[in-house]
Write a structure and sequence with these properties.
The complex is a heterodimer of chains A (about 150) and B (about 525). Chain A has about 150 residues and is mainly α. Chain A has helices at about 1-30, 30-55, 65-95, 105-135. Chain A has one domain (about 1-55, about 65-135). Chain A is about 80% helix and about 0% strand. The longest helix of chain A has about 35 residues, at about 105-135. Chain A is elongated. The N and C termini of chain A lie far apart (about 85 Å). Chain B is of the alpha/beta class and about 525 residues long. Chain B has a single domain (about 5-355, about 385-530), classed as FAD/NAD(P)-binding domain. In chain B, about 25% of the residues lie in helices and about 15% in strands. The longest helix of chain B has 21 residues, at about 430-450. Classes of the chains: A mainly alpha (about 150), B alpha/beta (about 525). The interface between A and B is medium-sized, with 18 and 26 residues.
């Protein structure tokens, strides 16, 4: 009886193991490499776009202090975007540790993840634009009627 | 009416970017109007899987196919070569291959040397410092020591030849012909905030990596930081002049179609060899009934396009030729200088290109009958993909007054501005040169071991190089601008793009367009006190 049970379990394992390999392969295979490369490509493009946007001229040329503030802000923003990019890649790699069993589902999952990352970067870039505008406009004017 | 400026630049492409950057140190009020917009690298085809399809549609170099809102149509039905461009900040450098060869000193003296066309009023030596400056600004990769050129040293190491470059190099060696790694405006290591090339290949759809030196990411950020204003989505309709033949400014439409007048002390045209004559011809007035600055009658004439041939060979061994900058490996100038025994004067550059992408490989293979549709497709495709090399034949195009840019009688852009019409024929000299080049290209393919070779020329979709339509010279009867870009007829109007070329040379013109723009900027700065005398 024990022998039959063991044989049955071994048989089940023999079927399950290749299935697990196939399922694992769905995420970690060429499609995952492609999706990862696309994420990196899009991240690089966003970094470049940030630099292009940061090259706007000052409305008051020669304002050294404003220029210095902007330079600092720009460096911070570049760093923040790079951090976000690195975090996204880590997240993607982690998600490949336990991919969806079905290859089709795994592919859809990866695409959705990539689109989500893209959206997050766009939101970050939008935030950067607001910060830039705020820095250029200077500190908000004090409202005399407003109490502390 | 908007605030007056000192210098108004029209167009934001290769020449405008270099010029604006150089002029910024004068602290003058400089404004550039560009009909296109900034390009977001995230939109470039190479950030998506369908990159090859997008490169043939919304990123096609042909404005008649691309049809973006900022594009104007070009009637090129009377030309065997379609005219290509890109409208946006950076202009055609957004889509160019970044093959960056200089011309030879002889290219500026073809009348003296070969008795054809005209000499330039400036020479290679005058431009040499500006080529070097431009190489630094654009980030040019290459290898010093090319015996075809006066000494120069590109700031970055050359683009790797790859198996494709090595293979065709052996072919050139077997024939004893010149070859050298080509100068290339592609960062081969991180350079001035730009990331190094990762050898993906589709440079001609815009470089999302920022490795390709397009003017929007090289000169423009520096020019803007130095105070130059750049206003996008502004399409200029005409340049205005006063009773003293002075340009007073430009009328333009903003993105909403509203009309504006921009006044300026100096007007600078940088709209390329088609856009500039189009704008001048559209700027008719009682003082200039044939078009602005056109008392010579030469505006729009002498259009030169560099007739282009292509030889493609397929090799047995896998070359990974689908990888790496498509149009940048090596060049050969074995047949660049005049040898009358060949039956033509002047010569051509042989530009080695890598293999095509998978869709293009399949599409061309199917169209030629090399790759069947259905059974056997994959096997035939595999025998070609990554195993092909191209040799482009870039022929020097001599000026002919009959090759013209005029205004189309009916075709207009979205603002109702008359569109350009091209009338162009290959001269007999160009025909002979092209045939010679295609035969030599076939020969080198054979010497390199290609088992399947085909050639074609003139290739229709290759009219990138728009030159000669407002040529420079000292004689106002025979030229539109003087030796430093100032109009003979309108003393505060300058032209700085490829229109001013007297002859075309046999190489891709962007380095020369930018060197000339930098040269003109310096000439203007040296004469600021008496610029209009």
């Amino acid at each position: 009886m024990l022998h039959r049970q063991m044989r049955h379990r071994l048989k089940s394992l023999a079927v399950a193991f290749p299935l697990a390999l196939i399922a694992g392969g769905a995420g970690a295979g060429p499609e995952a490499d492609i999706q990862r490369a696309l994420i990196e490509r899009q991240q690089r493009a966003d970094e470049l776009w940030l630099r292009i946007q940061q090259s706007q001229p000052l409305s008051a040329p020669g304002d050294a202090r404003l220029q210095q503030n902007l330079d600092t802000l720009h460096l911070q923003q570049q760093q923040r975007l790079q951090n976000l990019n690195a975090q996204q890649l880590r997240q993607f790699d982690q998600s490949q540790q336990a991919p969806a069993a079905d290859p089709g589902a795994a592919q859809i999952q990866m695409q959705q993840q990539r689109q989500l990352f893209e959206r997050d970067r766009q939101l970050e870039l939008q935030q950067f634009r607001w910060e830039e505008q705020r820095a250029r406009d200077g500190p908000p004017k004090q409202n005399s009627n407003q109490s502390d | 009416m908007t605030t007056d400026v000192d210098v108004l630049i029209i167009g934001a492409g290769a020449s405008a970017a270099a010029f604006a950057w150089s002029m910024a140190d004068t602290r003058m009020r400089i404004l550039c109007l560009e009909q296109g917009d900034w390009m977001n690298p995230a939109d470039y085809p190479s950030t998506r899987r369908d990159w090859e399809v997008r490169m043939e549609r919304e990123f096609s170099p042909n404005p008649n196919i691309r049809r973006r809102p900022e594009d104007y149509p070009i009637n090129d039905t009377d030309s065997p070569i379609s005219l290509l461009n890109f409208n946006g900040v950076g202009g055609s450098t957004i889509l160019y291959a970044a093959h960056f060869p200089r011309p030879h000193p002889s290219d500026f003296r073809v009348r003296s040397l070969d008795g054809v066309a005209d000499d330039w009023p400036i020479d290679y030596a005058a431009l040499a410092p500006y080529y070097a400056l431009n190489d630094r600004q654009m980030g040019v990769a290459g290898l010093a020591g090319d015996p075809a050129y006066p000494p120069h040293e590109p700031p970055l190491p050359p683009v790797p030849l790859g198996l494709a470059g090595e293979t065709i190099g052996r072919g050139f060696n077997a024939l004893g012909w010149h070859w050298w790694p080509s100068d290339t405006a592609i960062a081969t290591r991180d350079y001035e905030g730009r990331a190094a090339c990762v050898n993906l290949g589709p440079c001609k759809g815009g470089c999302a990596q920022g490795a390709k030196g397009s003017a929007d990411i090289t000169y423009w950020p520096l020019a803007r930081r130095a105070g130059v204003q750049l206003r996008t989505r502004c399409r200029v309709r005409e340049i205005l002049v006063d009773a003293n033949d002075r340009a007073t400014g430009a009328v333009y439409y903003d993105e909403h179609g509203s009309e504006h007048l921009q006044r300026a002390e100096v007007v600078v045209l940088a709209c390329n060899g088609v856009g500039t004559p189009r704008l001048l011809l559209n700027s008719k007035s009682p003082r200039f009934p044939q078009g602005l600055a056109n008392r010579s009658g030469l505006v729009g004439k002498n259009l030169m396009l560099h007739p282009w041939g292509m030889v493609r060979g397929t090799f047995d061994a896998p070359l990974n030729s689908q990888l790496g900058p498509l149009s940048c490996t090596i060049l050969s100038q074995q047949f660049y200088e005049t040898d009358r025994s060949r039956g033509f004067v002047r010569g051509y550059n042989m530009q080695v290109t890598r293999g095509l992408g998978p869709v293009a490989t399949a599409r061309i293979g199917v169209a030629r009958g090399d790759i069947p549709w259905g059974e056997g497709h994959h096997e035939a495709f595999a025998r070609r993909y990554g195993r092909q090399i191209g040799v482009g034949i870039c022929c020097e195009d001599l000026p002919e007054e009959s090759n013209t840019v005029t205004l189309d009688a009916t075709l207009t852009d979205s603002n109702g501005i008359p569109a350009p019409k091209i009338t162009y024929r290959l001269s007999e000299n160009s025909e002979r040169m092209l045939r010679h080049g295609l035969a030599r290209g076939t020969e080198v393919m054979r010497a390199a071991g290609a088992w399947d070779i085909y050639s074609d020329g003139p290739v229709r979709q290759t009219g990138w190089h728009l030159l000669g339509t407002a040529r420079m010279g000292e004689d106002p009867e025979r030229s539109v601008v003087n030796g430093w870009g100032r109009s003979h007829d309108v003393k505060n109007l300058f032209i700085i793009d490829g229109s001013v070329f007297v002859t075309s040379g046999g190489v891709n013109p962007t380095p020369t367009i930018q060197a000339v723009a930098l040269y003109i900027a310096d000439a203007m700065k040296q004469r600021l006190a008496n610029l209009f005398d």
